Structures are given as C-alpha cells and as structure tokens.
Amino acid sequence: MLPLAIFDAAEFFGWFVENANYLLVFVFMMIESSFIPFPSEVVVPPAAYLAAQPGHEMNVAGVVLAATAGAVAGAFINYLLALWIGRPLVYRFADSRIGHACLLDREKVQHAEKYFDEHGAVSTFVGRLIPAVRQLISIPAGLARMNIGMFALFTALGAAVWNSVLAGLGWWLGHTVPLSSLFEQVERYNSYLSWVGLGVLLLCVAVILYNAFKKHDKK
User: Which of 84, 99, 144, 206 could form a disulfide with 113 if both were Cys (CB 3.0 to 4.6 A apart)?
Assistant: First the structure.
C-alpha cells in the first residue's frame, strides 16, 4: 500500500469516479500489482462505492473479480520478469568470484529455491495483505521458480481477500457518505489499513523467529 500523496491522487480519483468500469478496474489493479508504484485504494473503493449506488452497471462482486484478475495479471508480470531476467543474473552472480566472496554459491541459491517452492504458498498469500510487500512478493517467487499453479492460486486468494476488504469499505461508504467526501474518507481509512497491514507483517516476523529458535533448540 502506498501513500495517496505520491501522485495527484485527488485528480485521478475524480477522473476514475467519472469513468469507472470493470476494464479500468482490471487495468489499474494490474498496474498496481506489477513493479509500477500505484495505490489500489484509489481504484477498488470508489468502484465499489459506485457499484453500491442503485442502477449502476457495476456490482460489488464484479469489482472484486475484476480487481483480483488484474492483481493476478500484474503479479505474473513480476513473476515472469524475475524468472526470465532476474534468475539468470542471480546464478551468474553466485558463480562469480564476487559472489563467492559474499559467501554465495550455486548450491545455496538452489537450496533457497527449494525452500521457497516448499513454503512459498503461505508467503505469497500473506504477502498480498502486507503494505509494500504486496507488489514485491512475486519477485522471490519467480526467482525461486515457485510452482506456477500454486503461485497463481495463492496470489489470487490473497488478492481476493485484500480486494474484498477494499470493496467492503467502498460499499459501506456508498451507504454512509456523499460522493463529495469519498476521497477524504478513503484517505482516512487507508491509514487504518496501513496499520493493520503492518501488524500482520510484525506477526509474521514473530512467527518466523519463533519457529527458527524453536528448531534451533531441538538441535
């Protein structure tokens, strides 16, 4: 999740509200999920807000589906770039003298790939819920050649949860606030969601550290 102040979010927000449809939701969520910094908070909540209005052509379920499909498409951009470009570079570095000087070699890279392939499903799912990590979690998955079916499944599940939260917020605001104050309300709740995401990140780190020390004690 990125601060809305990174670009003229208010201007984009107004334009999006006037032109929103499923295709635009898909396209902008694909951008958001790729390597291009873009906040999903200016796409899904206003789309769901409009879907909550009587007679609008969109519905909330359709918004979540379009946003999730876009997120998966964007995640595959990162996955494939990491697989086709990043992975050869990592191996080239591991085989170099500099890589060996950094205590990195081909065997260690292969071990890391195997570990992520075995445990990457949970990381991919949880990563989709964490600010700043959401767009980046596809990169290690591609570097590690994570099973593409598992990657697609858990990316879609994580994205669906996140988009459902944003759509739920937009739907609720659609029944409680006028359109003129929508942007300010989304900005307000965006900060709350950021704190929740940070809490999820800290919890994940705590679980990882606990398991690491637990295994160490057994040895």
Answer: 144
